[in-house]
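not sure who needs this but someone in the group chat was asking about Heat shock protein 70 from Calcidiscus leptoporus so here u go. i didnt clean anything up, its just raw.
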Amino acid sequence: KVFKRKHGADLSNDKRAIQKLRREAERAKRALSSQHQVRLEIDDLYNGVDFSETLTRARFEELCIDLFKRTLTPVHKVMEDSALKTSEIDEIVLVGGSTRIPKVQQLLKDFFNGK
C-alpha cells in the first residue's frame, strides 16, 4: 500500500516484487525483535523503482495484532482441555521464532498473569 501510494503502482500481481517484499518483511520482523525501528530497503522493487521505508516496532505490532492474538488460540485450547487455571502454571517455555517478538511475549505474559 505504501508503494502504491507513493508511486501509483499496484504490486499485487507481480510475483517477483511480492517475493522481494516478503523477504525484506521477514528480515524486518527479526530485526524488530531487538530494535525499535528498522529501515526496509529493496533495490528495483518494481519497474526499476527502489523501495525505502522506515518501520517502527509499534507500527509492526499494529499491523500484526490480529495475527499475534491468534497465537493465543492454541494456548486457550490447551488450558481448556487440561482443565488447568493460569494460576496453576509455574513456568512458560517459549519455542519457535515468533516467540522472540516482544508483543507475542507480552500477550503471553498478560495471559499468564505476569509469568
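also The beta strands are 37-46, 49-56. if thats useful
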